[in-house]
Amino acid sequence: xxxxxxxxxxxxxxxxxxxxxxxxxxxxxxxxxxxxxxxxxxxxxxxxxxxxxxxxxxxxxxxxxxxxxxxxxxxxxxxxxxxxxxxxxxxxxxxxxxxxxxxxxxxxxxxxxxxxxxxxxxxxxxxxxxxxxxxxxxxxxxxxxxxxxxxxxxxxxxxxxxxxxxxxxxxxxxxxxxxxxxxxxxxxxxxxxxxx
Length: 196
Prior knowledge:
Layout: H1 3-6, E1 7-11, E2 24-27, E3 44-46, E4 63-66, E5 78-80, E6 88-90, E7 94-99, H2 106-114, H3 116-124, H4 136-141, H5 149-192
Parallel strand pairs: 2-6
Antiparallel strand pairs: 1-7, 2-3, 4-5, 4-7
């Protein structure tokens, strides 16, 4: 089913340093990196012009995409929004998708949208001369295959287990690299101070 039949889209808000209003947390392009969940603790605060309407406020289960920022490799990156401790919006360089159907789990959809083939589809469907950008039309046309809710939950569980194991292995690998670097420094220090 096309994503446009499963979700409603909304571009983020624009603001300037001279804007006057009530401060609010904002999800910006810098917050995406390789995260799966939006890292609320890293969000900046901004002062928008006037009050931010409820339609621009993020809620749990929203998926937010990088729309544009000048780097085509970032186009289409997405994050799943978890529980937010305060009102939060998203920048004009992003697009929010809010599911309108219970047929698809947000976590399943986010994993699907992060797949290499789907990201490539977003990038290839982008437009713009100097700055590629993702638009709501491209997102609307992405066909989302989805099994039963039970199967979606099982797929998410498996992917999360694999992700946890990958993170564990990355951490071990980094620890080994740090230990090797420390050993190298120690040996060099000993060699240059004639202690070998």
